[in-house]
Amino acid sequence: xxxxxxxxxxxxxxxxxxxxxxxxxxxxxxxxxxxxxxxxxxxxxxxxxxxxxxxxxxxxxxxxxxxxxxxxxxxxxxxxxxxxxxxxxxxxxxxxxxxxxxxxxxxxxxxxxxxxxxxxxxxxxxxxxxxxxxxxxxxxxxxxxxxxxxxxxxxxxxxxxxxxxxxxxxxxxxxxxxxxxxxxxxxxxxxxxxxxxxxxxxxxxxxxxxxxxxxxxxxxxxxxxxxxxxxxxxxxxxxxxxxxxxxxxxxxxxxxxxxxxxxxxxxxxxxxxxxxxxxxxxxxxxxxxxxxxxxxxxxxxxxxxxxxx
Length: 309
Hints:
Elements: H1 3-14, H2 17-40, H3 42-53, H4 58-96, H5 99-123, H6 125-136, H7 141-171, H8 173-184, H9 197-214, H10 224-249, H11 252-259, H12 262-273, H13 285-303
Helix pairs in contact: 1-13, 2-7, 3-7, 4-5, 4-6, 4-7, 7-9, 7-10, 9-10, 10-12, 10-13, 12-13
């Protein structure tokens, strides 16, 4: 089994109705929790954000705000296009599909819509960016600061949601993976060892938020902010999710061997973290990551660890 088959198996598993149902059961309460906390602490968060933003030069602030608003336009366009497609064709689609295929079709559709508008924004970015930046010149500095503070809070709350979702999934990873294993690898038996994945995620959560603070100025530089955020998301899940999967199906010796394959470990983490940028699909990102590491571990176990890459 090569990485292509690992990817396809993970996609098939993450789009199954059982996984989607678990995802919704976990993610919706967390969304509501952070939404409520954001509303309750809104005034304090705005004041704190503005105190940070006061240190940022106005020209950089405008460029970053234009960049984020351009991304927000992309986000809204994806959602609206997706809604229009299902508003027009929902009856016909649902008529000819059972529930499982309907869910699969929904996820694939939004991925294709996101890809289409990503390509559109890529080839027309200069025009979109310049127009948004021009519109921002109509507003006073105070309005721009409050707008930036608003977006900064949304990004912070979203990061808290991502971290909490990653943490909750690790807490239920054993029954989740064992059910997948019984379906895809019925001949295998879990052999849990002492790999401390919870210690790893606790350490990486601390590092994640420390780096968020230390690298704060970089979040106001267009494109660089996306790269930094993607790196931090990948860092957060890379080792802990690998340990969560391998601790059930690999010996400590095998785990140490896997850790040497840094390119694959980082590649899985970065690829799955990119889903955090895609609306709706983002809630599947941690489940997809865990499944990628799981199938990677099972591949090595099945084909003999001594002949590993």
